[in-house]
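Figure 3 (text version): C-alpha cells given as input.
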C-alpha cells in the first residue's frame, strides 16, 4: 500500500461520524395524524370530476409538503408518508405532523383517485385507496 492510499484511508477513518442511538417518536394513532393533525381543521372538498360528489378529497399535493419521511408502502406501490404542510398551507390544511400519500404518485398508478382543485393543487380521494379518512375520527 502506497503512502497516498494510507493517507486517504486515514482521512476517511477520521471523518466517520459518531454513532447516535435512534429515538422512537410516538405520533399517536393514524386518525390523529390525518384530517389536519392537531388543528383538526383540515379542509375536505367534493372530488371534482368524480361521479359520486359525496366523496371527499384531502389535499395531497407534494408541492405543499415539507419534512417528508417515507414510512411505508401502500399495496398499489405508492409511498405512505409522514410530513408537515409548508407554513403557507398550515392554517387551511392542518397543523402538526400529518400522514398520507403524495398525489403525484397516486396519479401515476390510479389517476381516477386524483382531482385538481381550482387553486391548482392536487387532491386524493382516500376512499378509492381503501382509506376512508372522512370517518376515521
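Below: residues designed for each position.
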Amino acid at each position: 500500500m502506497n503512502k497516498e492510499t494510507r493517507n486517504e484511508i486515514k482521512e476517511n477513518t477520521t471523518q466517520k461520524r459518531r454513532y447516535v442511538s435512534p429515538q422512537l417518536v410516538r405520533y399517536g394513532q393514524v386518525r390523529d395524524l390525518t384530517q389536519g393533525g392537531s388543528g383538526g381543521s383540515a379542509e375536505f372538498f367534493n372530488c371534482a370530476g368524480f361521479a359520486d360528489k359525496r366523496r371527499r378529497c384531502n389535499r395531497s399535493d407534494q408541492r405543499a409538503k415539507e419534512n417528508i419521511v417515507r414510512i411505508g408502502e401502500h399495496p398499489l406501490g405508492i409511498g405512505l408518508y409522514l410530513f408537515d404542510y409548508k407554513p403557507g398551507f398550515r392554517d387551511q390544511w392542518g397543523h402538526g405532523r400529518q400522514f398520507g400519500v403524495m398525489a403525484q404518485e397516486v396519479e401515476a398508478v390510479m389517476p381516477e383517485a386524483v382531482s385538481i382543485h381550482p387553486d391548482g393543487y392536487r387532491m386524493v380521494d382516500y376512499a378509492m385507496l381503501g382509506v376512508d379518512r372522512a370517518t376515521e375520527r
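The radius of gyration is 20 Å.
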